[in-house]
Design a protein that fits this description.
Blueprint: E1 3-8, E2 11-16, E3 21-25, E4 28-33, E5 36-41, E6 44-51, H1 66-89, E7 93-107, E8 110-124, H2 130-143, H3 145-148, E9 153-156, E10 159-162, H4 165-168
Parallel strand pairs: 8-9, 8-10
Antiparallel strand pairs: 1-2, 2-3, 4-5, 5-6, 7-8
Length: 170
């Protein structure tokens, strides 16, 4: 999938050749005080409070940071891409959860992410879907819009479990 990024006013627009259409995602940020603000979107009814991470001067603990949201965007994109590809591949799953951690370090005098590890766990209802599920994860990493739009290395470490037939009857 080839992706071209176009900056248009205050939002980023992705154009994909596969879908032959343009998608835009609008996000606003409003400053409140100090190093804290609120993210919103005209198409989403909820907001997210954001702040500078506590590791930096003036940062605030226990509030979402741009760094958390960056890692979350990759984690959520791989999840939603997995769902779409699994559905098309007829891979039936019972549950999905994922943990991700991003490592940031100074590179050439600037902080940037050097690696993001995504550890999804999926439970399947049948063993015959296991190899297909592994392939779906590989395809998900390659097809995820967010991971295709960044330069940091993403390491995907899926754990696939098959629910034993006797466990279903408990």
């Amino acid at each position: 999938m080839s992706i071209r990024t176009i900056r248009k006013h205050h939002c980023i627009v992705f154009k994909t050749k596969a879908m032959n259409s343009l998608h835009s995602y609008e996000v606003n940020v409003m400053w409140h005080a100090g190093r804290k603000g609120t993210l919103s979107s005209p198409v989403i009814p909820t907001t997210i409070e954001v702040a500078t991470p506590p590791e930096f001067a003036g940062g605030i603990k226990e509030i979402w940071t741009p760094e958390h949201l960056f890692v979350a965007a990759i984690n959520a994109c791989i999840m939603s891409t997995f769902f779409a590809i699994a559905e098309n591949s007829k891979v039936e799953y019972i549950s999905y959860e994922s943990y991700a951690v991003g490592t940031a370090d100074k590179v050439e005098g600037k902080f940037s992410f050097t690696e993001i590890v995504v550890k999804p766990k999926v439970v399947l209802s049948a063993a015959e879907h296991e190899q297909k599920a592994r392939r779906v994860f590989e395809m998900s990493e390659k097809a995820c819009t967010i991971s295709n739009s960044i330069k940091v290395k993403i390491r995907l470490e899926p754990v696939i479990t098959v629910l034993q037939p006797h466990a279903i009857n408990l």
